[in-house]
Design goal:
The chain contains 12 helices and 6 strands. The protein has 293 residues and is of the alpha+beta class. The protein has 2 domains: 55 residues; 194 residues, Glutaredoxin (3-Layer(aba) Sandwich). The chain has a 6-stranded mixed beta sheet with strand order 1-6-5-3-4-2, sandwiched between helices. A hairpin with a 4-residue loop joins strand 5 and strand 6. The longest helix is centred in the N-terminal third of the chain and has 41 residues. The chain is elongated. InterPro entries: Thioredoxin-like_fold (IPR012336), Thioredoxin-like_sf (IPR036249), Thioredoxin_domain (IPR013766). Pfam families: Thioredoxin_4.
Length: 293
């Protein structure tokens, strides 16, 4: 084979590669455009797509996704992680105790804590020195583990004179779109039936995987609450504002994920943040510090 013939074959090969690259580029450009159009339709139009892009680019959202992935991997034993974010730590007793993961005690606003305890529903001794305020999203898998383990509830039982709890709402609609419906239902259950119905509603709702107006109303009716009053309350502006205020309240304490737990010393007006579904020992370490035992 002559040198000229070899050169011609190389030239033809290069031409074919160039043509293939051009065709591939054209295909990908059309595919990308069609994929973008499809995603735009999924979220309900261009305006919503712009909002979705803003969400995906937000640092807070990226941190939330990172924390969730790390925690899932941690629960599978794939990686050792102490990430704390929107979804909480896996409830494994193999995790280190509270010292490294609880924020140092900080001076809070005693009046603010008192207002939360007055506005919320206390489980346990109302005059207890310590209040554990839990901010939760019913559809957060780590919140479910935290609740199923009855971590805070068992501490209230173990320290009946010293510890009580207040369960607060922190739905994360960017992760769990139907969570706000549950939170609104919880507010209404408490408003219409007091603490007993509030916590009974919470227990029933933790068994569901999504929330609709119908299934939360069914829970309420099953608890003996007035259906008409509940449905009116469920979507009222006042109820929605109440849930929004609770989320903002938690954010103000540095809670951006669930479950987020404040261990409050009512005597000193200080609090410690435990961000995650940690085991009982983590909370008990802080309780012991406060009580000096």
């Amino acid at each position: 084979m002559t040198t000229e013939k070899k050169n011609n074959q190389i030239k033809m090969l290069l031409i074919w590669l160039l043509v293939l690259n051009v065709l591939l580029g054209i295909y990908l450009s059309f595919f990308k455009r069609d994929a973008y159009r499809l995603e735009t339709l999924k979220v309900g139009g261009a305006e919503n797509m712009n909002l979705a892009v803003q969400l995906y680019n937000a640092d807070a959202y990226k941190q939330q996704q990172k924390a969730t992935l790390e925690q899932i991997l941690g629960s599978m034993g794939t990686t050792d992680t102490t990430a704390q974010g929107d979804a909480a730590q896996p409830d494994t007793t193999a995790q280190a105790p509270a010292q490294a993961d609880a924020t140092p005690a900080v001076q809070g606003d005693a009046a603010k804590f008192a207002a939360i305890e007055k506005d919320g529903y206390i489980l346990g001794n109302k005059n207890a020195r310590i209040t554990i305020i839990e901010y939760s999203d019913m559809l957060c898998p780590f919140c479910k583990r935290h609740y199923d383990a009855q971590t805070i509830e068992n501490l209230v039982k173990k320290y009946p004179n010293d510890v009580n709890m207040v369960f607060r709402q922190m739905p994360l609609p960017q992760l769990h779109p139907t969570a706000p419906i549950w939170s609104q239902g919880a507010v209404c259950a408490g408003k219409l039936g007091g603490a007993d119905k509030y916590y009974a509603y919470t227990a029933a709702a933790f068994k569901l995987n999504e929330f609709t107006t119908d299934n939360v109303t069914e829970i309420a009716v099953g608890l003996g609450l007035d259906k008409s009053k509940f449905t009116t309350c469920l979507t009222s502006a006042e109820t929605i504002a109440n849930v929004t205020a609770q989320v903002q309240e938690g954010n103000a304490f540095g809670i951006n994920g669930t479950p987020g737990n404040l261990v409050v010393d009512n005597q000193k007006g200080t609090s410690v943040l435990i961000a995650g579904a940690y085991p009982t020992e983590t909370f008990e370490a802080e309780i012991t510090k406060i009580l000096g035992k």
